[in-house]
Amino acid sequence: MKILAIETSCDETSAAVVVDGVIKSNVVWSQVKLHKKWGGVVPSIAKRAHEERIDGIVKQAMEEAEIKKPDYVAVTVGPGLAIALEVGILKAKELCKKWGVPLVAVNHLEGHVLASAPKKEEWTPGLVLVVSGGHTELYLAEKIGRYKTLAKTVDDALGEALDKAAKMMDLGYPGGPVIERKAKLGDKNSFELPMPLKGRENEGRFSYSGLKTALLRLVEKEKLNGDLSEKTIQNLAASFQEACFEHLIRVVRAVSLPYLDGKIKHLLVGGGVIFNINLQAKLVELGRELEVEVNLPAEGILCGDNAGMIGLAAYQKVLRGEAVKEKDFDKIDRLPRWNLEKNF
Ligand code: KG4
Ligand code: ZN
Fold it and tell me: Could you tell me if the CB of 11 is within 6 A of ligand 1?
């Protein structure tokens, strides 16, 4: 079964070919340079860039996988930026009509989840954590395709908090990677930051806005004493990153515990923030404590947004009989706020 997958939900234009559940090609063109000077993703710029690049990226993915025509075309329909999603959806429908093949509408979050799924082992029921620029969510995967929310953010996503922190310190966009680099050289105990929702971790809520405000106050205070020195930036980055990750770990630990009845053996983690080596180590450590295997994306490219993961999710949907025929294409529309619990 050959699937061509397309992903345009945010600022990566990507196409991939997945054959029988295995990624054969995965072309990702990042628009980061276009958005950098604006300090974040500008939807209209993303839309135009997707439109300009999509044909070339699809062609490259097909050539690299050496296929002429797929059996299905899959596309991210949400969650994401509405006008960016639209570009991929229109392209997918156009290609389906050209080749006379069905369409598979994929949830971006399920892509992040399945990017970490072990290939040979059964992993459901299992726990699943997505940590990205738009989402910080923990789910119980009862089976592939059926997810129950256990915890989610009440304000910012973790990646978004890192992006905003970097902006406060004039470190550019995206913030996660630069905060990670600075944090490595800093002392995580140099600044005290409040632990969000301390003692209430089992309520299943992540919250990053309080930490962000606390960081802003520290930055302003330091600026009053003159320009931020490189050392101060490193220490602020280290302290902030540590507080963000510690809060994440505390909530995941508290919320997961009641579900660990011996049947759950895996915690799958995905999303752009999982690029972070320090976070990976913390999650692996938590896995040891909870006696679950922590599954990270098999390759770096699978942490961030990419169409390969969309193809993996599409493969499962086709097996479940969820591909859509041309007569029903009108029912497939962008779902900018699509919740993984309503994954159909
Ligand atoms: O999954 P992703 O590529 O896009 C969304 O679906 O949001 O995640 C992007 C997020 C951004 O907030 C970015 O700052 C963060 O992932 N990120 C990182 C790292 N690399 C990217 N956060 C922490 N450490 C990193 N190395
Ligand atoms: Zn993503």
Answer: no
Q: How many CB atoms lie within 10 A of CB 154?
A: 14
Gap between the Cα atoms of 60 and 270, Å rounded: 25
For residue 14, list its beta bridge partners: 7, 28
Give whole-number Cα distances, 296 to 62, 109, 114, 250, 308, in Å.
27, 15, 10, 19, 15
Ligand nearest to the CA of 304: 1
Instruction: Confirm if 103 and 322 have CB atoms less than 8 A apart.
Output: no
Q: Which two tokens stand for residue 211?
A: 């930490």
User: What's the pLDDT tens digit per position in 150-170?
Assistant: 999 999 999 999 999 999 999
Which residues are within 5 Å of ligand 2 (an ion), measured at CB?
132, 305
CA distance 175 to 186: 16
SS3 145: coil
* pTM more than 0.90: yes
Cβ neighbours of residue 324 under 8 Å, at least 6 residues apart? 102, 103, 104, 105, 331, 332
Q: Could you tell me which residues come within 8 angstroms of residue 229 by beta carbon, excluding any fewer than 6 positions away?
A: none
